[in-house]
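Entry for the shared binder. Reason: the reviewer on the internal report wants the predicted structure included alongside the sequence.
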Amino acid sequence: MYIERVPNRNSPPAVLLRESYREGNQVKKRTLANLSKLPEDVIDNMKLVLKGAKVSITEAIPDNFEVIRSLPHGHVMVILETIKKLGLDKIIGERPSRIRNLVVAMIIARIINPKSKLATARGFNYQTCSNSLGQILNLEKANEDELYDALDWLLNKQERIENKLASLHLESGALVLYDVTSTYLEGKGCDLGKYGYNRDKKKGKTQIVFGLLCDVNGCPIAVEVFSGNTSDSATLNGQIKKVRNRFGIKNVVWVTDRGILTSSKISELVKPVAGLDYISGLTKTSIRKLAEVSAIQLGLFDELNLVEFESEDYPDERLIACRNPLIAEKNQRQREELLQAAEEQFELIVKATKREKRALKGADKIGLRVGKVLNKYKINKYYNLDITESGFTYERKQELIVQEMALDGVYILRTSVEKKVMNEFEVVKAYKSLSAVEEAFRCYKSIDLKVRPIYHYKGDRVKAHIFLCMLAYYVEWHLKQELAPLLFEEEEIDDNSLDVIKARRSSTAVAKDRKKRNQENFPVHSFRTLIEDLGTICLNTVECNLKGGKYIFPKITRPTALQQKVLDLLNISLFCTQ
């Protein structure tokens, strides 16, 4: 920091307090304040102090320079500048406005520390703020009612925003990833909240279902909320219409889960429409039927982990059978452990029927004890059970277990995409891309964005809340791509098709896991801890009291080497202003 006099034509020169900073490979300077109105002796004293000179004991530094406020700032500016670089602020609202700033602020707050709308609003206020977000976006007087109004405004913009994101990330013939999840609601006042298949295992709570559309890389494009009792497959029709009609993309390859794209949905929604192709999977029951009629020769997996074949049951489709030996070994181990645990309980029941005193008698009582074991371990299909009035015996169905072992680690994909367009390895790789949507759901529900708990009682507010979280994940996804060298993330995309089945991590990612440092010897972070680290860059308000006057100016903490690396990777500066 230094003082510079700048000539001003016929007027007295401007006296400016300036600071040098680095942006990429360039050194730039930024004006912190105009000191032209201060007395000359005060300016001279400031020059001496800035150059390291000691002042007299009556003007000691502790009495003249005091930090009167310090707000976490680095993470706010990193996310805000990323939003600007992506153009998301202009996609949300074409012109700058307070309501656009409120939406942008809620997105940033969701990434930094997800809270209720009331707590988020208090985080903007000067007296209760936890970072510089309210000050930077001039929202220090915002309240929760304004945030709710901003949510309502955002929901009305959702269609236009999604259309714009689709135009940026999707094109004709593109792969579209689609998956569905659910999350529970607090209270029972929301009209969307219904009882349904509860993935969160929260008994007694209503839920909503929402489906997420992503591009092939996992970048979110659109989200839609449904009633909690909506089946996964029932959501597909609206998504197909959305992509074809709203986004204007007629040729699409849908990559989705077998529970969504069922055989009936393929016949009803996909096959009658020209330009629609799909990649999905078969259920375990369907795989077992194919194995029983020898449509797929499991012996081939001894030499290959991927086999393409055809079946009369699936006309005009390519079937691709894959076997993951690691998953197969895991499934076999887990099954054996489960059977052994159940048999230990069975043996206790057998001993109870044979003890001399108070022996367990009666088919109903014995059956009740056996039923508890079967319900706990879910293994009744693997046993022949014989329950009598005075005893109980059990025997493994060894033939069935052998058949199950042969199918361990095996999954079969079905696709309408022609081989000249995508070979079998590319199909498998595309299907495995669905893991990117699953990662999005994990971030949505637990890791970063924490969409739960949902206290909104209006259906539209719930929809707006889910959409806001999608926009936050959109920003987080791009941040993770740029900051991958500093995160426990996969940096290298291995195009070796033979590794598709084994799904091995790259050597770089393995090395980062082991050493907890990257190739440049920077410590490696999770996304959450890196954001927290950036928050230690503070926006300080400094009060300067010198002879002849008082001056207050801002001063930003100097970034550490790691923090500067983050700024360089993102190609942004902390000194950018709104």
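Summary line for the report: The mean pLDDT is 88.
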